[in-house]
Amino acid sequence: MKIAIASDHAGYKLKEYLKKVLEKEGYEVVDLGTHSSESVDYPDYAAKLAKLVSKNLVERGILICGTGIGMSIAANKFPGVRAAVCWSEETAALSRRHNDANILCLGGRVLKLEEAAKILKIWLSTEFDGGRHSRRIQKIKKIEEELYKSRLLTSF
Ligand code: RB5
Fold it and tell me: Cα of 140 to ligand 1 centre, how many Å?
């Protein structure tokens, strides 16, 4: 599976750690930066990664900032993106089972490295439940389609 990963300065250390975890597990990892702890703006990195997921150029994405929140707000502007902030193994599993999340957002300032690695592994190995949850995902898709049709949003 091809996975993209990106962070801002607050998530840099955790990104480097999780990149190694992913490579060790045999995933093909696309690192979109940032490449140091120098201050940058999280929306720039969320956009780079969310575009790839939105266009189906990678199957999944991992975004890391201080809390995961800014990254998720920015990434969810892109059609087809379902970015979820997860802070425990349970929220990670449910974001896959119920929401079919395709981007995992993590907080480098609020999670320990090992804790984040456990969350990531659960998130990658949990399948979408489908069933009634598919109907809800379809409703989200319909909202996007209507926004694009009404030109409140335009394609990027
Ligand atoms: C950067 O200081 C911080 O605001 C950012 O990493 C993120 O947590 C925003 O949601």
Answer: 27
